[in-house]
Write a structure and sequence with these properties.
This protein is of the alpha/beta class. The chain is 31% helix and 23% strand. Bound molecules: flavin-adenine dinucleotide.
Length: 455
């Protein structure tokens, strides 16, 4: 069986390795000139690569951990020792706790409401959740306005959703918010560093895993091959790449796996047409921009600070210590997320730099001027945002039931097709395993036209 896999992110690479192990002839076509997709290493110095994309993982990410072991990679613990820094309502404070200085009662009430919502969601089929239509109609911002009175909780909520989902609450449905939090292991797990989803990073950067998979697949991976059309009939499929590829090409396949975020999968022309959409006009994408601030050593630790900060106004809504485990450099990663990211991406590079450095001086007045790098995922043609797709009002009911339904010879992978750990590296890997199991189930492709492809 010849399988063409579209997209060399973690989902596509995992599917390709599994299909190869099962004896399939595999070709992976990737639009960019690199593998990894939303996993991307940024070289800051000869011996220093940082995660421009995905970075963190925890012990429940069992498939990712299995791959890390398989390829002999090491984990680095995320460092949280020391005091946190907060810039709330223009006031700087440092304290031993990770929670910003908002009223405990207000935050308690907010989290009680959120926990209730998360408990209600059906993780295996969010569209079948009781009152799904109501939950899918409201945005998270409307939900907040309806149920939360306390000012502190209203101020904190967009920061929390920005950090967890890189989302503006006005852009996502309540059902999507509740599902995402449930799928990732619940609010406490997703939000935690020690014992939670941010416990570790891959030492040397998560791109090491994608590079290892790439080495294994070798020449089966064709870079700079953007796919623009997939045609199929009862006898086979034809994947068309270009026209901006180095050499436009057509690749024949028995089965095709499309391992792309939904809005990018939707852009491909399908013949016959898809019976149901992969994305709707309400489907958005997370807005996250990473800013890396590097120093000769993690000098904030000398002042008893952890490097963790939260600010109520941008651009850096949070910062975290992402220094290499051998302390050969100091790296603070700043996150610009949600509505702040949408504004930041429109600014000139000079204005971005000035606002980041001014913000940093207020957060950490004792630090010298850092080396500064920005990774703007909103400007990336083949991602169009991150961490993941955001399902807007109506999307779960419209898209959910057919997320993984094959279209003839075309099968779907990608973190957004995974109901477990949706949006995360773990979800991408699980989707890759799932799709190859589907190819192996021996079911004859359904619903493709019987017309023979022009040869
Ligand atoms: C800044 C940032 C921070 C994140 N933080 C974390 C984190 O800490 N932990 C975590 O677990 N996850 C995190 N994520 C999410 C994680 O990166 C993704 O869930 C995961 O990498 C998605 O993998 P994928 O294979 O499904 O999709 P992608 O990685 O998006 O792969 C899709 C591939 O398809 C290619 N492509 C697109 N269009 C075409 C086309 N027409 N033809 C051919 N190829 C095409 C793309 O170039 C890409 O390589 C983060 C992401 C970002 C960007």
């Amino acid at each position: 069986m010849r399988v063409v896999i579209v997209g060399a992110g973690l989902a596509g690479l995992t599917a390709a390795a599994d299909a190869m192990d099962n004896g399939a002839e595999v070709v992976v076509v990737e639009a960019r000139d690199r593998v990894g997709g939303r996993v991307h290493g940024i070289r800051l110095a000869d011996n220093l690569i940082v995660d421009g994309g995905a970075a963190y993982l925890g012990e429940r990410h069992t498939e990712l951990l299995a791959k890390i072991r398989e390829y002999g990679l090491a984990l680095a613990a995320t460092t949280m020792d020391g005091d946190s820094t907060f810039l709330v309502a223009n006031r700087r404070t440092t304290t031993a706790t990770r929670v910003p200085p908002f009223g405990a009662v207000a935050l308690g009430e907010l989290f009680d409401h959120l926990e209730d919502l998360v408990e209600q969601v059906r993780p295996d089929a969010p569209w079948l959740t009781p009152h799904a239509a109501d939950l899918d109609r409201l945005t998270a911002a409307q939900w907040l306005a309806d149920v939360i009175d306390q000012r502190d909780a209203r101020t904190f909520f967009p920061l929390f959703i920005g950090e967890m989902m890189a989302a503006d609450p006005a852009a996502i449905s309540v059902l999507h918010m509740a599902f995402y939090l449930r799928s990732g292991g619940g609010i406490r797990y997703l939000n935690a560093f020690d014992g939670g989803a941010q416990q570790w990073r891959i030492d040397g950067g998560a791109q090491l895993l994608c590079e290892a998979l790439h080495r294994r697949l070798g020449e089966r991976v064709r870079l700079s091959h953007p796919v623009y059309a997939i045609e199929q009939d009862a006898y086979g499929a034809l994947v068309r790449c270009g026209p901006d590829a180095g050499a436009p090409c057509e690749i024949r396949a028995d089965r095709v796996v499309v391992a792309l975020p939904p809005a990018l999968a939707q852009q491909i022309q399908y013949r016959p047409a898809l019976p149901s959409p992969r994305a709707t006009p309400a489907t958005g994408h997370g807005c996250a921009i990473k800013v890396h601030l590097s120093y000769p050593t993690p000098i904030w630790r000398d002042s008893g600070l952890s490097g963790w900060s939260v600010s109520t106004s941008g651009p850096l809504l949070s910062t975290v210590d992402d220094s290499p485990s051998d302390e050969s450099a100091g790296v603070l990663t700043g996150f610009v997320t949600g509505a702040a990211a949408a504004e930041f991406t429109r600014q000139s590079p000079q204005r971005q730099r000035d606002s980041v450095l001014a913000h940093l001086r207020r957060l950490y007045p004792q630090l010298p001027r850092p080396h500064y790098t920005v990774t703007d995922w909103l400007a990336e043609k083949y991602s169009r945002g991150c961490y993941a797709a955001l399902f807007g009002p109506g999307d779960w009911l419209r898209l959910g039931p057919t997320l993984t339904e094959p279209h003839g010879r075309i099968h779907w992978a990608g973190t957004e097709t995974s109901l477990e750990f949706f949006g995360l590296m773990e979800g991408a890997i699980r989707s890759g395993h799932r799709v190859v199991a589907e190819l192996n189930d021996g079911v004859e492709p359904r619903s493709a036209s019987r017309k023979v492809l022009s040869r």
